[in-house]
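Practice record 12: protein with D-serine.
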Amino acid sequence: MNKNKNLSSSDEFLYKLIEKEEERQENEIELIASENYASMAVLEAMSSVLNNKYSEGYSGKRYYGGNQIIDEVETLAIERLKQLFGAEHVNVQPLSGSPANASVYMAFLEPGDKVLGLKLDHGGHLSHGHGVNFSGRLYDFVQYEVEENGFIDMEKVREIALREKPKMIVAGFSAYSRNLDWKRFKEIADEVGAYTFADIAHIAGLIAGGVLDSPVPYFDVISSTTHKTLRGPRGAFILCKEQFAKQVDRAVFPGMQGGPHDHITAAKAVAFKEALDPEFKIYCQQIIKNAQKMAEEFIKKDYKIISGGTDNHLMVIDLRNKNISGLEAEKVLEKVGISVSRSTIPNDPAPPMRPSGLRIGTPAITTRGFKEEEVLFLVELIDEAIKNKDDDEKLEKIKKQVQDLCQKFPIYKK
Ligand code: DSN
């Protein structure tokens, strides 16, 4: 896949590292819920000469000359993104998820304002108010949680909202496998006069593909990354109602960021075009079918899935009945060529570096063509690896099976 002939002669060492990583991706199975394989078209746009330009400002109002073509690129990305989500206003400049969220807070809040967000170890995100993150340090976050059954109870969210009267309610997650009730969040926010902010980083593709409900009709503002289920370049965007357009744009630039990354904006435009293709809907349907089959199969093998299943692309497994920590499981699976991320479980008794769970997701394996049959085999391999965590010979055999499976489903080496 790698056609970097200039790089290979100017910096052979780095070129070889990229080649090695390409081999790793081809020969290993990717189950990290936030990762995916961007198309060659997306990768090509990212490595274009658009990298060379500075273009602070917005189309037609830049602080540097020579931006006529960049204006066209950004406008194209904007129009495609609007069409993809049916959004009134969009900003395609945010560099990544956390800066996008920082811009949203800056657009709607003053430091010290009260905000409601899902707790990190209950599936939320650092930027939804964790104490070590800018969000928790700059704003007065109150956190809601999932219940014993692994679901968010909207009545509890309402109780906290009525008691705390936040200025903003954040709905979104990085490790929650159930649908969010956008309409109910909006009703609660209206009761207390709060802004509604949805962080759809994990599920943007599934929403764009029409397989999950969209917050767009209800929410004031929405942020997302572009590289997860949406399968684009690493980056982000913000959608909002027209009435908030000016304050959102001003928060992104000059509030949070300087020059946008125009090569990434171009790659976003490519990814949005791909997501508008009817094929993308079929891909999204398969992501969910694969995740549901996987959860079902893990449950048959006596694994505990938080909330008992999944409505989206991911699941969190509570490993406490399997006599292995999330960290150990991550390491054992790494040995056989399967990438997963350890995860806290709600109210985890173990520390975050050695938590009790694993988070697993199906966007990447679905991109490479896995269907239910391969998913069943994969669960078998994961279970075998966990059971034989101390048997290097057995692990070596599983690694070979992983490689054989990968070779049947090439990513770029088609
Ligand atoms: N790192 C992303 C994830 O894995 O969910 C969130 O920022």
